[in-house]
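Section 5.1 Outputs to date
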Amino acid sequence: MKDRGIRWRRVMEQANADGEFRIAARFWRTRVRLDLGPESVRLMVEDGAIRAIEPCASDGACDVSVSGDRDCWARLLEAAPLWQDLFGAAGRGDFAIATADLEAFYAYYPAIRRLVDILREESGS
């Protein structure tokens, strides 16, 4: 991740204008927390659109959390070899994914994956 950080407002605008994300997230109502090392943000998703993004604590309320240290996020957002997909990186133990509803997570994983693509574009990687 570049030092300038991720412009979360831009991520929300990009996701909400992205047809692939909108289709993958349709009917989804959730709070996704991304823990990017010491920074945590919560995204409120409702029926295919991100309605809000706000900073939060690393233990902030959410339905799904994706946690990793800054180096892991940097590799994922750069799509470094063997780091192209969040699920693979999580399978290696580089990210922790927590959810009470694993079935919903799998159903909406394409939305998460597309969100990672949008984060890549926004981070300049």
